Amino acid sequence: MISEDHPRYHSLRLREMIVDAWQRGILADSGMIAHGRGEAFDYLLGEETTKPAERAIRAAAAALLLARKPVLSVNGNTAALVPGEMVKLARELKGKIEINLFHRTPRRVKLIEEVLRDKGADEVLGVDKLTHIDGIMSPRATASPDGIYSADVVLVPLEDGDRTEILRKSGKTVITVDLNPLSRTSRMASISITDNIVRAVPAITASVRELRGSEREELERILEEFDNRENLRETIKLLDIRRYNPEL
Amino acid sequence: MISEDHPRYHSLRLREMIVDAWQRGILADSGMIAHGRGEAFDYLLGEETTKPAERAIRAAAAALLLARKPVLSVNGNTAALVPGEMVKLARELKGKIEINLFHRTPRRVKLIEEVLRDKGADEVLGVDKLTHIDGIMSPRATASPDGIYSADVVLVPLEDGDRTEILRKSGKTVITVDLNPLSRTSRMASISITDNIVRAVPAITASVRELRGSEREELERILEEFDNRENLRETIKLLDIRRYNPEL
């Protein structure tokens, strides 16, 4: 157990959750390494939701509210860190949840389905037969026919760049959460939220609640005014690490 | 197997070595996450040995050559990535190798000892009874009486900040290899090499060979001219990530 007084308590707590999920078989080995990369970028961002991230979160909420069929994708790291928050957001949107694993084994799918059901999910997609988006015969292109395959707006946190590109090319609005603003995922997505998933998902839910009563025109305006490329550019400016160590 | 044509071949190859070492029990779980953090910083440094890193490597070689008793410390990540290079450097210096693990179990010590002996190490310290530096009763302060405890110059790659501080306070010259120039380890060390260990260790060996014939005064001059704080400051400037994505 980590003391709450430890200066890196929150970061170490997430690390414990990741190791625990991996021990339970939810996370692939590569998921641990990916978490470490995220830690480094979060550290450089000051471990807080930046202004550009707030704008991306608001745009994501607007896109999800405008969606005909929003689908939320859950992978190992997402299941490790925010399973309950994903279920809550899906409920708020009356959207679907789909398990999406690159290192896919029946056991991992089953374990993650259990975690999501434990957190109150009624329906979990991606556990049965999958189809290939645009007929692309790659494990990066698989999706549930009733879920991501037929969705117009997808939230795919901690996603791979190739898959993000495939989803984008198929005409979907793709929302990602990724701590590296330079990653292919961040550059390929329609709306890139450069933030820690443990902060971003509850913030999207809060924003969905806040915007719920808005006119369609107002939501469309929020989306139109959001420029993902410009937003990433501003995020990258904030990653200037010199400011984190004025002593040096 | 990863294709050599893959744009991230070298990085993915190291990732495979890390996962393999962890599967063999050499690496603690936290070592995988730590590798991910290193990956992120290496990416921001352009995955090459920078000019400041070259200077730190040269200063490290001078310090090791001037040492009365140089000792090289090996932990799980070091054993996973550069066991043979560490043995080679120890031989070049007629220095000792000591296993130093925070998540210490007899099994991991044994496995790492085997890896080092496989690579040609005659003597491996840190496998028997340890003593506490300056009487500090912390697992971060343990060292072999015949190794780090009585060394004047230690190379402790991928080290923890607290332990680096303890080693420094005990009066030793502490050389680290750490990809995060802002880490406590980097700030606490006498000579901080901000570089990937797979590039840094062979480079130290090459520099030791090059400087081997130098006069003592010349080596002392190299050390005196090296300013660790200034060197870290220059490294941090190089981490300005905007330059890595001119498109944005």
TrEMBL record, chains A, B:
Its EC number is 6.3.2.36. It comes from the Archaea. Signal peptide: none annotated. Gene3D superfamilies: Phosphopantoate/pantothenate synthetase. GO terms for biological process: coenzyme A biosynthetic process. Keywords: ATP-binding, Coenzyme A biosynthesis, Ligase, Nucleotide-binding. The keyword Nucleus does not apply. ATP binds at residues 15, 37, 178-180, 184-185, 196-197. It is an enzyme of class 6 (ligase). The keyword Protein biosynthesis does not apply. Pathway: Cofactor biosynthesis; coenzyme A biosynthesis. One of its GO terms (molecular function) is ATP binding. It catalyses: (R)-4-phosphopantoate + beta-alanine + ATP = (R)-4'-phosphopantothenate + AMP + diphosphate + H(+). Homodimer. Belongs to the archaeal phosphopantothenate synthetase family. Catalyzes the condensation of (R)-4-phosphopantoate and beta-alanine to 4'-phosphopantothenate in the CoA biosynthesis pathway. This is 4-phosphopantoate--beta-alanine ligase. It comes from Methanothermobacter wolfeii (Methanobacterium wolfei).
